[in-house]
TrEMBL record:
It comes from Sphingobacterium lactis. This is Glycosyltransferase, catalytic subunit of cellulose synthase and poly-beta-1,6-N-acetylglucosamine synthase. The chain crosses the membrane at residues 240-261, 267-293, 300-320. Residues 4-143 form the Glycosyltransferase 2-like domain. It comes from the Bacteria.
Length: 335
């Protein structure tokens, strides 16, 4: 089988160099790489050029339209039997294609997604973010787990589709924000078999600061409402849990302030504050202990608690703001 790797790129020349370096070590040699520069001001053409004597790699530059349409641009030029979509901020393990081939043969998949993990070279913050995005105690726990909620929807940092899927679906219909979930839903509705290959993982850098991570996960929350507008049945109770967390945290903060400022504490509010604070402390301790066991680093475990709260608050607030935006102001998807 011949694979075509499609990588959309926007102002990340250093990251694509590291990713291409990792592809040099692949045990399975039958693949090409298509880098699609999506209107970047920091172009990576010279970096990609240096790999052409060692990789079957092509570079294209197009006007900025978003990563979804950049991937479609790559699909149109791909020669492979199977297309693999990567984000530019990943490192690919040497046995990646071996695992993909085994999973495709075992499960008879037309499209698949793989999980992500933290590489030893990642910074402590990157490892903490990786923990948060894969932890069973945050919204990330279902990403690389067979025991996910409902139908598995591959994410575009590590996504594979057959040529038949591309030809029938036409690829991505949304350019940004939850474009991969929307695409996954259409694949499944078209009758293709879609699943997770747990062994086909990649090392995913994600964001390098909590500020960047907040912005990213805030958009994830908004995107879930966008998907709800298009496919109402795809919204599950679990998707609203971060929003419940944000509302509960806000209410608890107000209760604590009232209890501190009130000379004669209101009994009902005192009990609510006690229960809420106890739950929050227990949850924080549980997060820390699990992160400590998982990452085997005190520093990363402490940062993982920060990452988890950042993720929940950002996703939940994005979910709530987009819900208000769509159903109070009646805006269309993408506005």
């Amino acid at each position: 089988m011949f694979f075509s790797i499609i990588v959309p790129l926007y102002n990340r020349p250093v990251e694509i160099k590291e990713m291409l370096n990792s592809l040099l070590d692949q045990r399975y040699p039958h693949f090409e790489v298509i880098v699609v520069e999506d209107g970047s001001t920091k172009k990576a053409d010279q970096i990609v050029e240096k790999f052409k004597d060692r990789l079957d790699v092509s570079y294209f530059f197009k006007e900025n339209e978003g990563q979804g349409f950049a991937r479609n641009y790559g699909f149109e030029r791909a020669k492979g039997d199977f297309f693999i979509v990567f984000d530019s901020d990943i490192i690919v393990p040497a046995d990646y294609f071996d695992q993909v081939l085994a999973g495709l043969e075992r499960d008879g998949l037309d499209a698949f997604g793989g999980p992500d993990a933290a590489h030893p070279s990642f910074t402590a913050i990157q490892k903490a973010i990786s923990y948060s995005m894969t932890s069973p105690f945050t919204t990330g726990g279902i990403r690389g787990n067979k025991k996910h909620v409902g139908q598995f929807h591959p994410r575009s940092f590590n996504l594979g589709i057959s040529r038949a899927v591309w030809e029938k679906t036409g690829g991505f219909k949304l350019s940004r924000r939850s474009e991969d979930i929307e695409f996954s839903i259409r694949m499944i509705n078209a009758g293709f078999k879609v699943g997770l290959i747990p062994e086909a993982y990649v090392y995913h850098k994600r964001r390098t600061s909590f500020q960047q991570f907040y912005k990213q996960t805030h958009n994830f929350g908004k995107g879930r409402i966008d998907i709800y507008c298009l496919y109402p049945k795809e919204l599950k109770p679990v998707h609203a849990l971060p929003a419940v967390f944000v509302v509960g945290l806000s209410v608890l903060l107000m209760i604590n302030v009232i209890n501190l400022l009130t000379m004669d504490a209101i009994y009902f509010l005192h009990i609510l504050g006690l229960l809420g604070n106890t739950f929050l402390i227990l949850y924080t301790v549980l997060l820390f202990l699990h992160a400590l066991v998982t990452t085997k680093s005190l520093k990363v475990a402490l940062l993982s608690v920060v990452a988890a709260f950042t993720q929940l608050i950002a996703y939940g607030s994005g979910f709530l703001s987009q819900y208000a935006h769509k159903f109070i102001t009646n805006k269309k998807v993408g506005e």
